[in-house]
Amino acid sequence: MRGQALVFATPETLIGFHPDAGASFYLSHLPGCLGEYLALTGDKLKGVEMIACGLATHYSLTSRLPLIEEQLGKLVTDDPSVIETSLEKFGETAHPDDTSVIRWIETLNKCFSHDTVEEIVDALESEAAKTHDAWCISTLKKLKDASPLSLKVSLRSIRDGRFQTLDQCLAREYRMSLQGFSKQISNDFCEGVRARMVDKDFAPKWDPPSLEKVSKDMVDRYFSPLSEFEPELELPVKQREAFA
């Protein structure tokens, strides 16, 4: 990993989408409710934070990358333990600083453990009113900027991911993506891309515009089977198992 040069984020709710490419699997397996937090807010993690929460295995400074590449290039093995030993030679010990979200993990778990996005928002607002905590206020702002529909879809996706295999998560996310692209449920994806990447006015007009107007049926449709004209994602599971 590139240390401080590395930034990790899943900011899809800010463009009216949902974390995909297997994100609902690995985010759902992070400690506590950190996966829900990252999926809903799109907050960024540095390399040190990725090590702390288990998203990364090794931490090294950018200046040491040429040495790492040279060392790995000399290896003639597929033994994970040999590769692991080689990487450890260049590892650095580092800890999250006082600005890291890891420092707020107790409050984060308390607020993001609730069943619905509305309850998560209520919990954050309650904490902010009691403590005037800057982290709570900042988190509420991130949620306010995101697509209400995407927030609900992403929360369910992460919760489902805890009980599914990676293959199942990938197949489901593919289905969700096609439903989101279709514009039959909402135009939020196109509107989010317009607001953040095309016009860059950062003023998306979400549809529905608020959490209370996002119906259960709208969320359910993201997880519904595709039509007969849109085949489900088929992964090479049998071929992979044959070589395992």
Automatic annotation (TrEMBL):
It catalyses: 3-hydroxy-2-methylpropanoyl-CoA + H2O = 3-hydroxy-2-methylpropanoate + CoA + H(+). Belongs to the enoyl-CoA hydratase/isomerase family. GO terms for molecular function: 3-hydroxyisobutyryl-CoA hydrolase activity. SUPFAM superfamilies: ClpP/crotonase. It is an enzyme of class 3 (hydrolase). Its EC number is 3.1.2.4. Transmembrane segments: none annotated. InterPro entries: ClpP/crotonase-like_dom_sf, ECH_dom, HIBYL-CoA-H. The keyword Hydrolase applies. GO terms for biological process: L-valine catabolic process. The lineage of its organism: Eukaryota, Viridiplantae, Streptophyta, Embryophyta, Tracheophyta. Pfam families: ECH_2. This is 3-hydroxyisobutyryl-CoA hydrolase.
